């Protein structure tokens, strides 16, 4: 996945804007129940960065600590879900739906596919993993 320009995005109301610098560490669909409940959607697509590689160019993110090591970020005005972070692991992800150009990324896998909704018909070729993709097995549950 090569990017000629920065990955940019923001919330629904426009109060929050971000820029992702460099290549994302991962782009993965997550089907876990925690993401489903946090988003109200069947799954979320993560675009992961090192914390210092995601810069907020406008506004201040509100944080909800959903578990001891997990921070979920959202816009305090419109409520848009924007981030999933594990500061102790130097990880922050933005969600593909908040990107200015969602077609600039390509998901490479499905995580927690054992939680996917049975009525969701997914026809891509990305590998499906019961939990985390290889290389991410040590991650705790969200």
Write the layout of secondary structure elements.
Layout lengths: L6 E4 L6 E4 L5 E5 L2 H7 L4 E6 L4 E5 L3 E6 L2 E5 L6 E6 L4 E5 L13 E3 L31
Report on this model:
This protein is mainly beta and 142 residues long. It has a domain at 7-26 and 43-107: Metal Binding Protein, Guanine Nucleotide Exchange Factor, Chain A, CATH 2.170.150. Helices cover 5% and strands 35% of the residues. The protein contains 1 helix and 10 strands; from the N terminus they run βββαβββββββ. It has one helix at 33-39; strands at 7-10, 17-20, 26-30, 44-49, 54-58, 62-67, 70-74, 81-86, 91-95, 109-111. A 7-stranded mixed beta sheet has the order 6-7-8-9-4-3-10. Strand 1 (7-10) and strand 2 (17-20) form a beta hairpin. Residues 138-142 have low confidence and may be disordered.
- The percentage helix is under 10%
State the CATH class of the domain at 7-26 and 43-107: Mainly Beta
Q: How are the strands ordered across the major sheet?
A: 6-7-8-9-4-3-10
Averaging pLDDT over every residue, what do you get?
90
Q: Main β-sheet: number of strands, strand sense, barrel status? A: 7 strands, mixed
Order of helices and strands: EEEHEEEEEEE
State the CATH architecture of the domain at 7-26 and 43-107.
Beta Complex
What share of the residues does DSSP label as strand, in percent? 25-35%
Number of helices: 1
* Classification by helices and strands: mainly beta
> Low-confidence runs (pLDDT<50, min 5 residues)?
138-142
Compute the gyration radius: what is it? 14 Å
What's the N-to-C terminus distance?
Answer: 26 Å
Shape: globular
Q: Which fold does the CATH topology of the domain at 7-26 and 43-107 refer to?
A: Metal Binding Protein, Guanine Nucleotide Exchange Factor, Chain A
Query: What's the total number of strands?
Result: 10
């Amino acid at each position: 996945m090569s990017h000629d320009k920065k990955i940019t995005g923001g919330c629904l109301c426009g109060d929050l804007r971000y820029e992702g610098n460099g290549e994302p560490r991962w782009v993965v669909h997550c089907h876990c129940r925690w993401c489903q409940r946090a988003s109200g959607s069947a799954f979320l697509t993560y675009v992961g960065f090192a914390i210092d590689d995601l810069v907020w160019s406008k506004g201040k993110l509100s944080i909800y600590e959903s578990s001891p090591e997990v921070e979920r970020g959202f816009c305090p005005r419109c409520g848009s879900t924007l981030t999933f972070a594990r500061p102790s692991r130097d990880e922050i992800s933005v969600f593909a739906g908040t990107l200015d150009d969602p077609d600039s990324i390509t998901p490479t896998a499905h995580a927690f596919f054992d939680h996917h909704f049975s009525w969701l018909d997914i026809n891509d070729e990305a590998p499906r993993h019961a939990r985390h993709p290889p290389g991410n097995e040590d991650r705790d549950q969200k």
